[in-house]
Design brief:
This protein is mostly helical. Helix content is 66%, strand content 0%.
Length: 234
């Protein structure tokens, strides 16, 4: 099974990339935009990823722009007043909690890592508000290190396409790491997130526009039977 999935993934990624390019909303994700804007600065990728949690991309972009105009790096942010940070990141969801977290992150970076963001998964996960997904995002977008950040989009699409059969994002990451060739890891998150935002949506997926229907488990087992049942009832 793993060998078949590896053989299939190249064409799948190419089809997804084509659909994303041709979509009505071809924007990059907030993290990809931040990587370009900040030349892959790992600290800003780290803080931007924390701010992106449960927040729409456009709100994340606005919050990070406001924050980094005022605080350039971990040493500045470590000495910031919480109320000022809170106001700067207000466009992001849960800004009260996130203001506390990112100041704590900056302080820990200064005190334990000399003001540098570690490029090690376990060290990243020792920071406040940094779980596996956030740590993997920093590795991919901040260090260009192969990893597979699994958010709700990656988890949903991987299961819909039949690449994995899992219940949690953690299980999805573990299966993808085993079955996906490493050469695809850097691009997988960006492509799947954009595909999930534009076509393979959580509710009302645009299956009629998707060129992966023929190989999609979700389409074969859920969408197509419903279409046939509706047609027979007419």
């Amino acid at each position: 099974m793993a060998d078949r999935k590896q053989a299939d993934l190249g064409p799948i990624l190419r089809e997804i990339a084509k659909m994303v390019r041709e979509s009505k909303d071809p924007r990059a994700t907030a993290l990809a935009e931040l990587k370009d804007a900040e030349d892959g600065n790992p600290f800003r990728i780290l803080i931007g990823t924390i701010l992106s949690q449960r927040t729409r991309d456009e709100r994340t972009t606005l919050a990070t722009e406001r924050l980094f105009r005022r605080f350039k790096g971990p040493r500045e942010l470590a000495g910031a007043k919480e109320d000022e940070v809170r106001e700067l990141i207000r466009p992001a969801g849960f800004y009260n909690m996130k203001a506390k977290s990112i100041i704590k992150v900056a302080k820990q970076l200064v005190e334990e890592f000399g003001g540098e963001v570690p490029s090690d998964l376990e060290a990243l996960m020792s920071l406040p508000s940094v779980g596996r997904k956030t740590a993997n995002c920093v590795l991919v977008y901040g260090f260009d290190e192969p990893a597979i950040p699994v958010d709700t989009h990656v988890h949903r699409i991987s299961n819909r396409l039949g690449l994995v059969e899992t219940k949690t994002p953690e299980q999805t990451e573990a299966q993808l790491v085993k079955s996906v060739p490493k050469r695809y890891w850097l691009e997988l998150n960006e492509l799947f997130v954009r595909f999930g935002q534009t076509t393979c949506k959580p509710v009302g997926p645009r299956c009629g526009e998707c060129t992966l229907r023929a190989r999609c488990k979700y389409y074969r087992q859920v969408v197509r039977p419903k279409q046939l049942k509706t047609a027979r009832a007419r």
